[in-house]
Design brief:
The complex is a heterodimer of chains A (307) and B (225). Helix content of chain A is 64%, strand content 7%. By secondary structure, chain A is α+β, with helices and mostly antiparallel strands. Chain A has two domains: 182 residues, no CATH class; 85 residues, no CATH class. A four-stranded antiparallel sheet of chain A has the order 2-3-1-4, covered by helices on one side. Chain B has a single domain, classed as Rossmann fold (3-Layer(aba) Sandwich), CATH 3.40.50.300. In chain B, the strands form two sheets. Chain B has a six-stranded mixed sheet, with helices on both faces. The chains are: A alpha+beta (307), B alpha/beta (225).
């Protein structure tokens, strides 16, 4: 006689596979995972931009030396050579480089529209100074430069780079909040789905409970199912998010001083940080944990009310 | 085995300010391990409620119910599943799981008890054969007749040879042949050591299988025999 093809591993006495609400879980968790992926990418992008701005523009000075060819107040050289010598000798200065005429022209052309030689007003020489990042006494340096070449202006980029850094950190904070909200909404979605499933399978649960199933057994069966469904949603959310994240990273690349990656596998892979490539694996795991814990809590609360 | 000490159960009808409805009133009895009782009484006399108290799916409003030696008012929650697995219940409305086959419904108590699958198959096949349900192994409850469903429910209740078997109108709706087989099965379980309580209002059946009885009338135990 043929014995029914029973496989206890798939024995579904609670009818978990039949509930309509469960079919919605992967879709809704997938949407949440997609948003979570964007939030993580936003967090990492903001951190990268912040690092770039504070480590780049924030660590530079621009020194304008008017009447650069005139003799300096102290020493025998010109005002330009005297200022440059002071800069190079100053602590915390990594390099000081005088911009060439072509570089100055390129900087001024968008505003003045002509070669600076044709201008009626004299144009100061400009020195781009890179700092080491150590503590620096800019006020003291500016005084020294002014004594040697009066009228010299020191422009510190750290102030606006600092503001950009603050903006980037605010964006990071927002990304963190979005991630938190997405986590809470995911937990809420799973809790609602579990309650809906409980309502649909109340009779089956009660029968199994009265036949001697423990709270732990019933809660674990539901939680395992919810974790599996949530992880499926996590996989899809992560996979859908990856091309979007890559496109946004490509758009943001110039702001971080990077170019668009070459169309090769290694260049494409190196373009995004490893954690972003791992999102299709990290998100399902996170979704599964959220699903499992939420369902366990929801189920145990409900089961505790049974006699 | 089962002891009721001044057990009462009342429901509050018609909302919070409704009148309390006494379903059971001051019920006292003591059943020794391995005993057999008919539970008699008219419809609405409280037979099902009494069985539900023994099955720990209801708690009394007053008094104490002691089942398998454990007082149900103070029993720890994590102990209850182990006790329930020693109680077989034949529900009046069968309470089969609609998405499971007859085989899986009967196998459920054994699987919940952690019985190896090889033993589960052998025991369930034997039980279903005895119940005349060999051809219905993979049928869902919706594909079974009322009598067949009832036999599946009975098979599920007795498959694990429970220490305490509670049967609520187990033969209602069955033809005479199957009724007799069921009663013989329950008496056989009793002979093998189970405590068996059968609720019925079928006096002819009780006459055919005489035995001690608990008689309920309007929630009160009027006769303990």
């Amino acid at each position: 006689m043929r014995i029914p093809s029973l496989r206890p591993a798939r024995f579904d006495e609670l009818g978990l596979r039949r509930a309509l609400a469960d079919r919605m879980v992967p879709f809704l968790v997938g949407a949440m995972a997609f948003l979570a992926a964007l939030a993580v990418a936003g967090w990492m992008g903001a951190a990268m931009l912040s690092g770039h701005w504070e480590g780049g523009a924030g660590a530079t000075l621009t020194v304008q030396v008017p009447m650069a060819g005139e003799p300096a107040m102290s020493g025998s050289g010109t005002r330009l050579t005297a200022v440059k010598a002071l800069l190079v000798a100053a602590p915390g200065v990594e390099s000081a480089k005088t911009l060439t005429d072509e570089q100055l022209n390129a900087l001024l052309r968008p505003w003045l529209g002509a070669d600076m030689k044709d201008l009626a007003v004299p144009v100061p020489s400009v020195i781009a100074v890179h700092l080491t990042g150590e503590s620096k006494n800019l006020a003291g340096l500016a005084d020294q430069l002014a004594q040697s070449a009066p009228g010299t202006i020191v422009e510190d980029h750290a102030a606006w780079a600092g503001r950009l850094g603050t903006l980037a950190r605010s964006l990071q904070l927002c990304s963190g909040l979005v991630l938190l909200i997405v986590t809470l909404v995911t937990a809420a979605v799973i809790a609602v789905a579990t309650r809906s499933g409980l309502a649909a399978r109340r009779e089956a649960i009660l029968i199994v409970y009265q036949l001697g199933a423990t709270d732990d057994y019933i809660a674990r069966r539901f939680a395992t199912r919810a974790a599996a469904l949530a992880s499926v949603g996590g996989v899809f959310g992560g996979l859908f998010a990856l091309p979007v994240v890559f496109t946004l990273a490509t758009l943001a690349a110039p702001l971080a001083g990077r170019g668009v990656p070459a169309p090769t596998v290694p260049a494409t892979f190196a373009f995004l940080p490893l954690p972003l490539w791992l999102l299709p694996m990290i998100l399902p795991a996170a979704a599964a944990v959220i699903g499992y814990l939420t369902t366990q809590i929801t189920m145990r609360q409900w089961l505790r009310r049974l006699p | 085995m089962v002891r009721f000490e001044s057990v009462s159960l009342s429901y509050r009808g018609g909302g919070a300010r409704g009148v309390a409805l006494d379903v059971l009133r001051d019920v006292n009895f003591d059943l020794a391990e391995g005993s057999f009782r008919w539970l008699l009484g008219a419809s609405g006399s409280g037979k099902t409620t009494l069985l539900r108290l023994m099955n720990m799916s209801l708690r009394p409003t007053r008094g104490e119910v002691i089942v398998l030696g454990a007082p149900t008012s103070s029993i720890r929650r994590n102990v209850m599943p182990r006790l329930r697995r020693q109680i077989g219940v034949i529900f009046q409305d069968f309470r089969l799981l609609p998405h499971l086959s007859a085989f899986d419904n009967v196998a459920l108590p054994l699987r919940l008890g952690g019985r190896p699958e090889g033993q589960v198959r052998a025991d369930v096949m034997e039980m279903l054969r005895w119940m005349g349900l060999t051809g219905k192994l993979i049928s869902l409850p919706e594909d079974l007749s009322g009598g067949e469903r009832q036999r599946v429910a009975i098979a599920r209740a007795v498959i694990s040879r429970p220490r305490l078997l509670l049967a609520d109108e187990p033969t209602a709706g069955l033809d005479t042949t199957h009724s007799e087989r069921v009663i013989h099965l329950l008496r056989e379980l009793h002979r093998l050591g189970s405590t068996v309580i059968i609720a019925t209002h079928n006096e002819a059946q009780v006459d055919r299988h005489p035995g001690p009885a608990l008689l309920l009338s309007q929630g009160s135990l009027v006769e303990v025999g």
